[in-house]
Amino acid sequence: xxxxxxxxxxxxxxxxxxxxxxxxxxxxxxxxxxxxxxxxxxxxxxxxxxxxxxxxxxxxxxxxxxxxxxxxxxxxxxxxxxxxxxxxxxxxxxxxxxxxxxxxxxxxxxxxxxxxx
Length: 117
Known about the structure:
By secondary structure, the chain is mainly alpha-helical. The chain has one domain. It is about 80% helix and about 0% strand. The longest helix is centred in the N-terminal third of the chain and has 29 residues, at about 10-40. It is elongated.
């Protein structure tokens, strides 16, 4: 049995690219968080407007920005493993990272809903 790094099936390739998109989106979100809450923005009115827009974006971004990529990578990876017997390292990594992220998002959602009620 050979072990491949790159996936061979279409769903496996989707899963691998979605986890790459998830990583890029998470990195962009981390940079935005740094700029909004500790990036040394001070001074003029233009920088104040940028600071306000970053705060608004960071308030919305965690929900809509990287979540779909992580969950979709997990789902497509599991489907490609079960249906197509995909055994590449990239798909296994995508399923592992996607499942961890999905579990963390579910726990966070449960905590938010428990505090809201």
